[in-house]
Amino acid sequence: MKTQNRKSIFNYLSDQFIGRFTGFIIGLWACRLVSHFFTTRSIHNLWGLTAKKTVVSKQTFGNLEWIASVLIGYIVFEIVVRIVKTKVDPWVSTLRFRILRKVVERGWIKRSRTRIG
To answer: Is residue 41 within 8 Å of 106, Cβ to Cβ?
Structure first.
């Protein structure tokens, strides 16, 4: 069985967090998109008589919001995770290397070890 190191675990968790957060935000936007095209019967549209949108029942409206948010959110999640892995990972690797090189050049590692020990 292959052992996991901290770097691979951190990369996996960061990819998942970024993808899920973006998918969640887009899922919320998808709910708003459903309400742009559909409405339910209520007092503000005289129970559907003056509605300019398609009138659906509250249960159907809730189901449409749920389905739209899940489908669109999942699709965006997968796209973002793929983009992060292919485009952002090489950039992050070079940035980590530059930061580590600066830390070593300035001697911050030696100072931190003397404070701890």
So the answer is: no
Whole-number pLDDT of residue 1: 46
Residue 56 makes CB contacts below 8 A (sequence gap 6+) with 38, 39, 40, 64
Question: CA–CA separation, 69 vs 8, rounded Å?
Answer: 30
Alpha-carbon distance 39 to 52, whole Å?
9
DSSP at 87: I
Closest CA to 35 of 52, 22, 50, 19: 52
At residue 24 the predicted structure's pLDDT band, cuts being 50, 70 and 90, is confident
- Which tokens sit at 42? 């209520």
Q: Is the pTM of this model over 0.90?
A: no
